[in-house]
Design goal:
The chain is mainly α. The protein has two domains: about 1-30; about 85-215, no CATH class. It has helices at about 1-30, 50-55, 65-75, 85-105, 110-115, 130-150, 150-170, 185-200, 205-210.
Length: about 220
């Protein structure tokens, strides 16, 4: 009986050694995901869903390096100002309507296929459909980003590029709207540029992510 027990113990020990060897071999071929050297953001006091979201970000390859983390923090960093809130809402409403017309065909628009069949204001913009499609998507996506205040600077930059192109290529050199002038695109360009400078401000996802730790001074 003792001899049988000893053999069973030897067999279990051999099985355990085999499992350990297999696990070690797998670990050699599947290295663990690198971890972020520092926390991406402080704990979010504004929205309860922020901590689970930001905990996922370090697992994305974009955030493997400290340089990428620093760049993302600067992109979403903003202050506690309320000045940007009416600017964001007005800009988002205007360009959501115009972007929906071009991309979705909503609000009486003709849709993306017809919009991209048009002509660009500059001869170097080839192919036409690519530039026109980029402008339509920039308006639509930019309005959504500006409205929720997530990557507000990116959304404002997309809209600013579209308005600058419209000013230089369509409305210049006239000023007043009755002459197809640039006064409205110029105002919208100034608003979007202000958001690129200031960020989302209050009531924005950017502000919720950064909290007081990401406040610009």
């Amino acid at each position: 009986m003792r001899k049988g027990t000893g053999n069973r113990g030897t067999g279990e020990q051999g099985t355990q050694v085999t499992k350990t060897h297999v696990i070690s071999s797998v670990r050699c071929f599947v290295p663990p995901l690198p971890r972020s050297p520092v926390p991406l953001f402080p704990r979010c006091p504004h929205f309860p869903f922020c901590p689970p979201v930001v905990n996922i970000l370090p697992a994305i390859p974009l955030f493997y390096s400290e340089g990428s983390l620093s760049m993302f923090r600067r992109l979403v960093a903003t202050s506690s100002t309320w000045v940007t809130v009416p600017l964001r809402l007005a800009l988002a409403i205007i360009f959501f309507a115009h972007g929906s017309q071009k991309v979705l065909g909503s609000f009486g628009g003709k849709g993306l296929s017809i919009w991209t069949s048009g002509q660009t204001p500059f001869s170097f913009m080839r192919p036409h459909w690519l530039w026109l499609g980029a402008a339509a998507i920039s308006e639509f996506v930019g309005s959504l980003l500006v409205f929720i205040g997530f990557l507000t600077r990116l959304g404002g930059f997309l809209i600013a590029c579209v308005m600058l192109t419209a000013i230089a290529g369509v409305h210049w050199p006239h000023l007043f709207a009755k002459d197809n002038g640039m006064e409205l695109p110029l105002a919208l360009f100034a608003i979007s540029l202000a958001l690129v400078i200031a960020g989302g401000g209050q009531l924005s996802v950017d502000r919720a992510l950064t909290g007081s730790g990401g406040r610009r001074k």
